[in-house]
Design a protein that fits this description.
347 residues, alpha/beta, Endonuclease, Chain A, Helix Hairpins, 2 domains, 7 strands, 12% strand, elongated
């Protein structure tokens, strides 16, 4: 099997070349994150032990998706965090340190990639399990100095491919091994034959899992469109000033956008805690911790909602306040007549 040289290796291009005639998807970061989140949702709900090979953007909350899976303490997990020599490794180090504090079966291993490969501009998630395997690979388009290209990059900054074919995944893993930089902390299993890492043929009904994945992706896509619709509505200029949004309206838009993000955090934490509580394998100590998480996140969300209601009430009261015009012609003569004799006496 002819593999590309280390300097020429592109996980994205290799996957694309080995897929049936297909075109890459042009996506943004939100869509890619949503797809990754959908895979994690399926792993959590079906309680699937899995091995993950990950290289994702250092910012944007990607690590939160991995942390959700780590919280399944009774599920065996192996996560290989792949990184290029120039990558920002702050989030990766945080994930590794947090995993060491968990008493479950989660295991995170850093995997450095050799310098000189094209992987610096690429992101990928390779999922291996007995139930199903999948691959997501994305390529970040080169930068451009033109304003049009910058605007376009904000909307469609990535080219991506997606596959469930084990044949493609095996070829990608074989190529990935060629660009792995061996270090002192390289896991022993990565120094041997990687074929032992591959799962057997799918044991479960893959159609059911794929249907579940599609359902999760539709849910997340719907949430993205809903958020975008709200943002577009709030960003519309007022009738009084159709050219630009007033500063007060812009501040309201920024405030509501951040408020919506704050609301989603406790909701996500509560949904995760509920799923973990539903697990028959949860111990009493874990259940108490999950219940405490539910209570604290409910209080947090209640405080956020109460604060927003009070703020809206204050704004309504301000709008209902009626101010009467001041008649200066009636007030000024009286003030002048009071102080005019005093002014004359001083002179």
């Amino acid at each position: 099997m002819n593999l590309p040289r280390t300097s020429d290796l592109s996980i994205y291009q290799l996957a694309l070349d080995n897929l049936a005639p297909t075109r890459p998807l042009s996506v943004n970061h939100a869509t890619l994150k949503s797809l990754v989140g959908s895979l994690i949702d399926v792993l959590i709900e079906a309680k699937i032990p899995a091995t993950l090979w990950i290289k994702l953007p250092p910012a944007g909350g990607w690590q939160a998706e991995i942390k959700r899976y780590q919280q399944l303490l009774d599920i065996s997990q192996t996560i290989y965090l792949c990184s290029y020599s120039g990558d920002d490794l702050v989030e990766e180090k945080n994930l590794i340190s947090q995993a060491s504090n968990l008493k479950g079966k989660s295991r995170i291993c850093p995997v450095p990639l050799a310098a000189g490969s094209q992987l610096k501009r690429e992101y990928f998630l390779i999922l291996l399990s007995e139930q199903f395997s999948s691959l997501i690979a994305a390529y970040r388009l080169p930068k451009s100095k033109s304003a049009l290209a910058i605007a376009s990059r904000e909307i469609r900054p990535l080219l991506a491919v997606f596959s469930f074919e084990q044949r493609v995944i095996e070829r990608v893993l074989e190529a990935l091994r060629e660009v792995m930089a061996v270090a002192d902390n390289t896991p022993e299993e990565l120094l041997g034959d990687w074929k032992t890492l591959l799962p057997r043929l799918w044991a479960a009904d893959e159609k059911e899992l794929l249907t579940q994945l599609l359902f999760k992706q539709v849910q997340r896509t719907d949430n993205i469109f809903e958020q975008q619709a709200v943002s577009n509505y709030l960003a519309q200029p007022t009738k009084a000033n159709p050219v630009s949004v007033p500063n007060s309206q812009q501040h309201k838009y920024e405030f509501l956008k951040r408020f919506a993000q704050e609301l989603r955090t406790p909701l996500t934490n509560m949904k995760t805690a509920l799923k973990l509580l539903d697990s028959p394998q949860s111990k009493s100590v874990q259940r108490r911790r999950y219940m405490q998480l539910l209570y604290s996140e409910c209080e947090r969300q209640n405080s956020l909602i109460t604060g927003l209601v009070e703020l809206a009430k204050l704004e309504d009261d301000l709008q209902l306040t009626v101010t009467e015009p001041v008649q200066l012609a009636e007030i000024v003569p009286g003030v002048v007549s009071t102080y005019q004799p005093i002014a004359h006496a001083l002179h």
